[in-house]
Amino acid sequence: MKKLTHTDENGKANMVDVSSKDKQIRSAHAFAEVLLPVKVFRAIKKNLVAKGDVLTVAKIAGIQAAKKTFELIPLCHNIFISKVDVFLSLNSKNRTVEIKASVLTTDVTGIEMEALTAVSVAALTVYDMCKAIDKGIIISGIKLLSKTGGKSGDYFFSEAKLLGKEIKKKNS
């Protein structure tokens, strides 16, 4: 098993020392989904939620959250964020709000937590703005879609890998 980087020799929580690492371009993309009751979905779609434009407010909340990740997650480093984009879209077929975040940095450590925090807080904001209509809102599917840069290399989410069904390339 790989040695955990956030524990000391006694197994206690420890912030990783990144002072010797070189700055490099790193990116991360994350996803979350909010399943809505019919009444809530219609209210968002018609922009009739009493608290205002749900998708715009959730987008801003996600951007703010990415910038404050180090204040929320105890062992995260305060890193320079070059760019944050949060995209929210309504999926009428599934009655969901789909949320994607893309975050970019040129720094010494990864930016995955910022992307995950962005989609999580955007999803919570959708809930907060709509709970007066119906509390039967489900937040799910929070996941890292991809990350680039760093010592561990690039990562791309694979449903097959998650289910333990590695897709093997056929030798021709």
Describe this structure in words.
By secondary structure, this protein is of the alpha+beta class. It has a single domain (24-149), classed as Alpha-Beta Plaits (2-Layer Sandwich), CATH 3.30.70. 28% of the residues lie in helices and 27% in strands. The protein is built from five helices and five strands, in the order βαααββαββα. The protein has helices at residues 38-45, 54-67, 69-72, 112-130, 159-162; strands at 24-35, 83-91, 96-107, 138-148, 155-156. It has a five-stranded antiparallel β-sheet with strand order 2-3-1-4-5, with helices on one face. Helix 2 packs antiparallel against helix 4. It is elongated and about 50 Å long.
Brief characterization of the structure:
With 172 residues, the chain is α+β, with helices and mostly antiparallel strands. It has helices at 38-45, 54-67, 69-72, 112-130, 159-162; strands at 24-35, 83-91, 96-107, 138-148, 155-156.
Gross CATH architecture: 2-Layer Sandwich
- Please indicate the count of domains: 1
How large is the share of residues in beta strands? Answer: 25-35%
Let me know the largest β-sheet: 5 strands, antiparallel
Give the helix tally.
5
Helix content: 25-40%
Report the structural category.
alpha+beta
CA(first)-CA(last) distance: 34 Å
- Looking at the structure, what is the overall shape? elongated
Tell me the series of helices and strands, N- to C-terminal: EHHHEEHEEH
Q: Mean pLDDT, nearest integer?
A: 91
Q: Order of strands in the sheet with the most strands?
A: 2-3-1-4-5
CATH third-tier fold name: Alpha-Beta Plaits
CATH homologous superfamily label: Molybdopterin cofactor biosynthesis C (MoaC) domain
Low-confidence stretches: none
Overall number of strands: 5
Rg calculated over all Cα atoms? 18 Å
Look at the structure and give the CATH class. Alpha Beta
